[in-house]
Amino acid sequence: xxxxxxxxxxxxxxxxxxxxxxxxxxxxxxxxxxxxxxxxxxxxxxxxxxxxxxxxxxxxxxxxxxxxxxxxxxxxxxxxxxxxxxxxxxxxxxxxxxxxxxxxxxxxxxxxxxxxxxxxxxxxxxxxxxxxxxxxxxxxxxxxxxxxxxxxxxxxxxxxxxxxxxxxxxxxxxxxxxxxxxxxxxxxxxxxxxxxxxxxxxxxxxxxxxxxxxxxxxxxxxxxxxxxxxxxxxxxxxxxxxxxxxxxxxxxxxxxxxxxxxxxxxxxxxxxxxxxxxxxxxxxxxxxxxxxxxxxxxxxxxxxxxxxxxxxxxxxxxxxxxxxxxxxxxxxxxxxxxxxxxxxxxxxxxxxxxxxxxxxxxxxxxxxxxxxxxxxxxxxxxxxxxxxxxxxxxxxxxxxxxxxxxxxxxxxxxxxxxxxxxxxxxxxxxxxxxxxxxxxxxxxxxxxxxxxxxxxxxxxxxxxxxxxxxx
Amino acid sequence: xxxxxxxxxxxxxxxxxxxxxxxxxxxxxxxxxxxxxxxxxxxxxxxxxxxxxxxxxxxxxxxxxxxxxxxxxxxxxxxxxxxxxxxxxxxxxxxxxxxxxxxxxxxxxxxxxxxxxxxxxxxxxxxxxxxxxxxxxxxxxxxxxxxxxxxxxxxxxxxxxxxxxxxxxxxxxxxxxxxxxxxxxxxxxxxxxxxxxxxxxxxxxxxxxxxxxxxxxxxxxxxxxxxxxxxxxxxxxxxxxxxxxxxxxxxxxxxxxxxxxxxxxxxxxxxxxxxxxxxxxxxxxxxxxxxxxxxxxxxxxxxxxxxxxxxxxxxxxxxxxxxxxxxxxxxxxxxxxxxxxxxxxxxxxxxxxxxxxxxxxxxxxxxxxxxxxxxxxxxxxxxxxxxxxxxxxxxxxxxxxxxxxxxxxxxxxxxxxxxxxxxxxxxxxxxxxxxxxxxxxxxxxxxxxxxxxxxxxxxxxxxxxxxxxxx
Lengths: 471, 471
Hints:
The structure is a homodimer.
Chain A: H1 14-24, E1 28-30, E2 37-39, H2 41-60, E3 64-65, E4 71-73, H3 74-77, H4 81-87, E5 92-97, E6 100-108, H5 113-123, E7 132-141, E8 155-165, H6 168-188, E9 195-198, E10 210-217, E11 223-233, H7 235-239, E12 244-245, E13 251-252, E14 255-262, H8 264-273, E15 290-294, H9 301-313, E16 318-321, H10 327-336, E17 341-345, H11 347-351, E18 354-359, E19 365-369, H12 375-399, E20 401-403, H13 409-415, E21 419-423, H14 428-438, E22 441-453, E23 460-468
Parallel strand pairs in A: 3-7, 15-16, 15-17, 20-21
Antiparallel strand pairs in A: 1-2, 4-6, 5-6, 7-8, 8-14, 9-10, 10-11, 11-14, 12-13, 17-18, 18-19, 21-23, 22-23
């Protein structure tokens, strides 16, 4: 009865499994320009759901939405020294309009710190206007060599936030507030048990004093940077000559933050939660939360009527599949697409006023009395579904974790598809050497519960570095 | 008491009035690249409101949302002959990634027919998959010489729809259905009494068999193309070799439509409805629908309490302005920003349980008993406010209208800031000559109630051409 879904098992080839998944579940298809994609309805609905939830949280922080230009004069990018060094190799350059050569080349935004710098310079006069908290949901472009849908794209979509504050303390506090919010959204909504910490000096955003990051450990033991929040201090404010008057009418450079999450999150969700039958999606971002599948619905008015009533009664995103296909085929399609709950309605069961319910990530099918099924009942099932997703992800994260006591271990650990924790004192040379030798980077520094010995110089420290290969 | 708002009166200089308005009401500010803008929170909120309302309507037509790439290989644009001719002069070309030259130049989308062509070619096999109805809300770029915020930008934002159908009839019908919906949204939501008709052959979209348009007549008598819907027949389907099987397993090229509305609509709204005090915004898209202004609210707990209660009680988008400024200043700010209703709360009036209400586009201030004010009451006021906006726009449109009986009149009409109706039979040569001589174009052809005589050859026709200068 079941048709094979043709997804390569992830135990066999995780790279192929991942690309089979995103293509066959109708999230995206490849577009003609390398690293870009056709974001299809089922995929884009996930992103739209994430946007809605995130916007709701950022409204509480009084962040306002704007939309700034795609194009940046090349000279702008060059104003902040570290910034241009960080982005120059991957920016796309526009040189012509029609047949005419432009006077100055234009850069397609890889990020928009420079435009926000210009904007703040022109629009701010006094401390009384501060803080200003802005965000935009836009496309950005960074030319990449090795691209994979969602995980690494030349064009991707993101939330890009920029704020400006009267004091360094307030700006730094806000940086951390956004960081904590990202951690919360990852854990509670996306069901990604991320590791949250601070980047080392060498891994910071180009132009930031501090970069805070959430990192997801994926099924293959590699880390995916899943959201960052940067404290920019007055670096851009000085580079862009943003000056505002303080209470005593003296001019000063205010303090900035920037932060972002992107469509990479969808990559993290797919890779972390899904299985060989297809997508498994957290219920809060699933485009379809319930699939109601009828058996002979087209030939049996009673079945169809009950299906329609249920569709009307339940306040969730529902797909009513009344097609002529067999229940096996239908189940397989909605499993592939990551629908959390399937409700099967057939004539025999209905005689006893019963329907059969399956959750996407549990094997059993359970009969319920039709009268039991209401919003509260569904919510409980979704909680059960989501809890299992999260627990499994924690299991993956913990199963890949190794304590590192000596640098020599790192090569073996990352070769084994694991990641490691090591007591660490900032040491850019050692960090660089490890990266060159093993491909592992420090994803972030986190606070240890107890003091330990730095693995390079055996000096005491309460910081732990998380080493892994990364996307 | 009133501070001057420094907006140039439109009777004096309509161009300056318009730019004063968009800048001082905080909709946008100019960005560094010509023709691009910083879309500020107050401006972007209008666009977001339009998106929500439009999406709601298009869901009913079963249109799904996607997001396709920004970049198009140059060779794609060249596949449809008329299409490339239409867009080649204004496309922006990406030639470099970092320091490296790209193998093939990439075009920043001026529109996305070619990408949708490719997508349909790759994703469609059988007639049973049809129709497919897709839309995206994206930025597009067309390099322009004379730019003005919203009215003509190098980067603008739009809804871009693309559908594909099994039969020519169905596709053409859908083209007209979207056209009718655009007309309805313009009239009922944006309060723009547009002229709706079909483009002449020479004014069609590059690659379309039919283009339907809604045109707004602005305060200066010029027309603004405010939304278009194109029947593409099988032109792109052939150019992109889109082939699907029919019921008899034979291959055929399906039929397409495309359509769009853009941030130009915001330009139309501003220019058409606003006055010398600032913006006047249709209530359904106003970012703030009610401003509650307190007098001495910070010093008078009773005033503040009532303001907060009202804020909580009313289910509208409300700004509670409890700042220390005088009521005159506050009123002026929210008038400038186009807030439909202002509710002033002061201590003396409160002793009698009264507040004062003004509508943005009426001169009188009226006292109401506090108890009267509920959602129903506000809705009635908003209706009154909106009805007057629409009536005034109809008045403008009608006051600029002239019946043309001879070609010689056209120059005078457009020089007078008017537009004209003329009986017309398609005649590309005459149309071109009028355009060259007078700057007037045929905005669209509409159906006449009665037959009349074509102004060129005096032949009978039931078609009327609308002549005007245009943005």
